[in-house]
Every structure is written in C-alpha cells, then in structure tokens.
Fold this protein.
Amino acid sequence: KVDWNNNIIYVGTGENNSSRSSYSGNGIYKTSDNGKNWTHIGLDDSHHIGRIIIHPNDSEVLWIAALGHLYSENIERGVYKSINGGESWIKTLYVNELTGAIDLIIDESKPDILYASMWEKDRKAWNFDGAGLGSGIYKSTDAGETWEHIGLENTQQISRIIIHPDNPNIVYIAAQ
C-alpha cells in the first residue's frame, strides 16, 4: 500500500491464496523514501498478509489483514492495527487459531468504518476444509478498535469484499 504524499510504502509478504503452492512470508516491510531503504516492521509469524489499509487522513494509522499459517494453527492471524506507522501492532480482531483475515476494506467517506472477511480453513497435505465455523463478515465503526460479526453465518467460505463506489452502504462479498 502506498502513501504517495509522504513517500511511504508498506509491503505485506506471503501469498494470500490458500493453495498448496502458496508461499509464506515473514511479515511486513516499510519504506519512507520511495523504496530506497526498507525496514522490517513486524508480524513475522503471520505468514500471509492479504491487505494493508492506510488511514486516508493519517499515514501513521494502518490496518493489516493476516491470514496466518497455511498448514497449521497459529495465533498471529486476524486484523492488526498500528497507530505509529508500524512501530507496534495491536490485534483487534481474532476469532481462533484457524481463522484469518482474508480481506479488509475501509469506507473512505467515513474512515472509522471498516469491514473484514474472516476465513476459517484447515489445509493439510491430504485434505482441505475451507468452510469453517469461524468464517464471517465483521464490521468496525470505531476505526478497527472493536468488531461486530454482521453476516454470512459462520458456515461460508468467504474471500474478497468491496464497498460500492457510489453507495458505501452497499458491500459486496465473494463467498461460496
């Protein structure tokens, strides 16, 4: 994600698709000089970062959607928030050790409103359960401090979400 006004770029590592050939990453990186120098800023064990959101009015505030480990349980998954440009992170949405954040969006017209799609999956070399009970859509109305489960009762395989460009009250969700 890029903040062009301040020459800041954030890069999350690891592929966010859950296929056997998806490679894991080692967290998130930041540059404040248009990519000349990079600093690792954490979330090492998140393995797969699918989305980075920068607050539209404050590039020090950002949110991360972390899917977590591909083949095993782990707790470094969910939605993370930083208010200091990634110097520290707070996990604000966590469901369980198999449910990660697959996508995250912000209402640009009301930046206190965010939506997260959480996906519980259990992938093994011999099996894939992609519709776990922890899956669902969550909404925050306080800039990602707290979250409420708002839809797709915990039985769906959920992936991407988007806010309608002309009407932020309409949210599209890709689910099976």
Remarks:
- The mean pLDDT is 89.
- The two ends are 28 Å apart (CA to CA).
- The CA atoms of residues 84 and 125 lie 39 Å apart.
- The first strand starts at residue 2 and ends at 3.
